[in-house]
């Protein structure tokens, strides 16, 4: 074939291709989200990840209340786009320390299978502890996490998504640090939430539970050795997760119980504030790390959860309490009753249907 004939055939093929119909682009059914309430959306690796779908996606925002960019995972019911007049209850699910809403765990089937409600996983920082820090002038920068979540994220979600924006249709739960955060927020804002849950949560920060208080202090000061205690569990510690270190007083003032100087810690203690949960549905899940032989972290946390249950029982406040010990009877994923994702997945398999049946049915 001559060069001139090749060129002629090339032109012909190009012309034919131009005449062929162009395949229609996939029309996204993801709802548009408008900036507001102090939140400005930005593009990030998490917000543009190929794993994002129309019903399970991460957005990244900036806020003057907290330093840096923050990820928020939004999980919509599968019928959200198909039912434009339908409104849904909302679960705010708070992650642990150190972690991030873009982690694959927060897109797991137990969370995404909640067909009756919207689930929102907001960033809480690696060691933000779901509170407005006493000291805003540390190397960690602005740290008004309560303001970020309560005054910005919740109204942003209600304004942009078809939520049922009432207490009866709003739940909050969390893992580890997020378990503390869920109870802390529910106790500070009982007008916002009707259900609260803790999965291996730090539920006691009073002076009689100094081990748990010092775990919080270790995350603040970047003393990761205390947090990465010897364990047979599968959770690896990241030596840089808590950098830069800040002063032990940055969160709630001095943690040391001398002449009541630690009063802010006692004031934030979930057990001490148990009475504020009256009227809410309360759910607590905890293991014991096989008595600490498999995972000493969960063993530490078990006592705080037990003290919370005892306090609630004494007040006559009902609580759904699951202590699965070494996890042997808690399902195939919970090994050793440890402080790890397999046990939390089993917790969610039990918790999510309970929340869906308790929250106000969609209108």
Architecture overview:
With 363 residues, this protein is of the alpha/beta class. It has one domain (30-210, 268-358): Rossmann fold (3-Layer(aba) Sandwich). Helix content is 30%, strand content 14%. The chain is built from nine helices and nine strands. The chain has helices spanning 3-19, 109-112, 145-160, 177-188, 210-221, 224-227, 263-268, 296-315, 341-358, and strands spanning 40-42, 56-63, 66-75, 90-94, 118-122, 170-175, 195-199, 281-286, 320-323. The protein has a nine-stranded mixed sheet, sandwiched between helices.
Which series of helices and strands comes N to C? HEEEEHEHEHEHHHEHEH
Tell me what the CATH architecture is: 3-Layer(aba) Sandwich
**What's the overall geometry?**
globular
Q: Summarize the amount of helix as a percent range.
A: 25-40%
Q: How would you name the CATH homologous superfamily?
A: Alpha/Beta hydrolase fold, catalytic domain
CATH topology: Rossmann fold
Which class do the helix and strand fractions yield? Answer: alpha/beta
What's the pLDDT, averaged over the residues?
90
If helices are DSSP runs of H or I spanning 4 or more residues, what is the number of helices? 9
Q: What is the count of structural domains?
A: 1
Over the alpha carbons, how many angstroms does the gyration radius reach?
24 Å
How many beta-strand segments? 9
Low-confidence regions: 1-26, 229-236
User: Strand portion, in percent?
Assistant: 5-15%
Largest beta sheet: strand ordering: 1-2-3-5-4-6-7-8-9
CATH class: Alpha Beta
């Amino acid at each position: 074939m001559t060069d001139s004939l090749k060129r002629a055939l090339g032109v012909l093929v190009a012309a034919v291709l131009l005449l062929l119909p162009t395949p229609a682009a996939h029309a996204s059914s993801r709802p548009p989200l408008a900036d507001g309430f102090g939140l400005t959306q930005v593009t990030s690796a998490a917000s543009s990840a190929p794993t994002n779908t129309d019903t399970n996606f991460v957005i990244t925002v900036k806020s003057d209340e907290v330093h840096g960019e923050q990820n928020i995972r939004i999980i919509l019911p599968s019928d959200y786009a198909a039912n434009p007049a339908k409104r849904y209850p909302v679960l705010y699910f708070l992650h642990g320390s150190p972690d991030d809403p873009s982690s694959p765990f927060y897109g797991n089937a137990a969370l995404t299978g909640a067909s009756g409600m919207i689930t929102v996983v907001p960033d809480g920082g690696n060691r933000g502890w779901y509170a407005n820090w006493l000291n805003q002038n540390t190397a960690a920068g602005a740290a008004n996490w309560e303001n970020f979540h309560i005054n910005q994220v919740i109204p942003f979600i209600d304004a942009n998504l078809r939520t049922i924006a009432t207490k009866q249709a709003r739940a909050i739960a969390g893992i580890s640090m997020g378990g503390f955060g869920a109870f802390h927020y529910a106790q500070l804002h009982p007008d916002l939430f009707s259900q609260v849950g803790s999965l291996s949560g730090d539920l006691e920060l009073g002076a009689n539970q100094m081990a748990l208080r010092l775990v919080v202090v270790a995350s603040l000061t970047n003393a990761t050795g205390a947090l990465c205690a010897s364990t047979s569990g599968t959770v690896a510690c990241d030596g840089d997760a808590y950098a830069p270190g800040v002063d032990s007083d940055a969160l709630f003032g001095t943690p040391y119980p001398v002449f009541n100087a630690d009063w802010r810690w006692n004031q934030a203690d979930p057990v001490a504030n148990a009475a504020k949960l009256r009227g809410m549905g309360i759910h607590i899940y905890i293991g014991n790390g096989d008595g600490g032989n498999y995972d000493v972290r969960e063993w530490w946390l078990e006592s705080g959860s037990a003290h919370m249950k005892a306090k609630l029982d004494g007040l006559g406040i009902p609580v759904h309490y699951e202590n699965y010990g070494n996890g042997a009877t808690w399902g195939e994923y919970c090994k050793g009753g440890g402080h790890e994702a397999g046990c939390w997945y089993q917790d969610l398999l039990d918790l999510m249907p309970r929340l869906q049946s308790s929250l106000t049915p969609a209108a």
